[in-house]
Amino acid sequence: MRLLSLSAEAYNAPLRGLWETAQGRSEVAYNVRASALLEDGSRGRAEVSPRSYVTGETQDTVLQDIAGSADRLCGEDYDGLFAFSNALKSLLPDRHSARALAEIVFFDALARAWKVPRCRLLGGACQEVKSDLSISIAPPDETARLAWDAFDRGFRHLKLKVGGLGVEEEARRVLAVREAVPGALLRIDANQAFSAEEAVVFIEWLAGSGVPVECFEQPVSCTDLDGLAQVTSRSPVPIIADESVLTPQDALRLVKAEAADGFNIKLAKSGIRDSLEIIAIARAAGWKLMLGCMLESALGSSMAVHLACGTGSFHYIDLDSHYLISGDEDEQDFVQDGETLRLKRPE
Predict the structure, then answer these.
(1) pLDDT band at residue 166, thresholds of 50, 70 and 90?
(2) 60: number of Cβ within 10 Å
(3) Hey, what domains does the chain have and what are their CATH numbers?
(4) Residue 89 catalytic?
């Protein structure tokens, strides 16, 4: 299928409130949207939310990379996604979010050209999945209020952002959530905030307090493979690598080192092809899989919902960023009912 045009534009999306993780605060998501046109007239749309602390990219670099590679990509005939992905990797070998954006928009256009839903092209395993809702770093009282609000809206799995406040203060926040919503299951995400020893102390405290924790995500720096392995070996709950895994090669390295129990896949860091390969590695190793997001709107979340439903591979779903962004319901090709994300049936 010949690609006729590929373009990108900045999309600055105001958040509904202050969003804070161990990596900083955000009030606006600085995203990039792309459009693609194929020779049969089929058009694709896509969005990514580049995060510099994950891939080293920004909104500006993604825009520049798409603009700089468009002329070399357009006019060529591609048999399918993998052929297009090969061309992208030769042009943008270390630009993960830019490659992901181009892959997703091409795949979206290709699915429309073939008149096959993206979910079905990715396996067609199911039509709906259940997502958690993430809770920003905040004082204990505010954390508890946010957790109750999420629970009241139908979310039974909550992802609590931690880090930067010290182990004792984070423990108070967890206890506040447990008291506010005793029926919720928690997923903890440190975004690289702890040392290995701090992480072990915190995890042991969670276990000793009887807090129902499903998994603990990226407790230490993404470059501290030994520390990640140390935490994993001592943790009674699954350790999920996020910022440590961008590529299939990263995934293989983590498996070989027994440095985690699972991977958090995000399209903005791995794209479609590498995500499928990481899924295969996790399945072969018997590891768990989480599907996450950055700060994408509903348009950006759409492809991830199709990946989740298409493969049916994920133990944990964390597709909630569209909840944080005002507007854009018109871009949503899935229906949300509490924690359930359900694909709209194709016409």
Answers:
(1) confident
(2) 12
(3) 3-116 (3.30.390.10), 121-343 (3.20.20.120)
(4) no
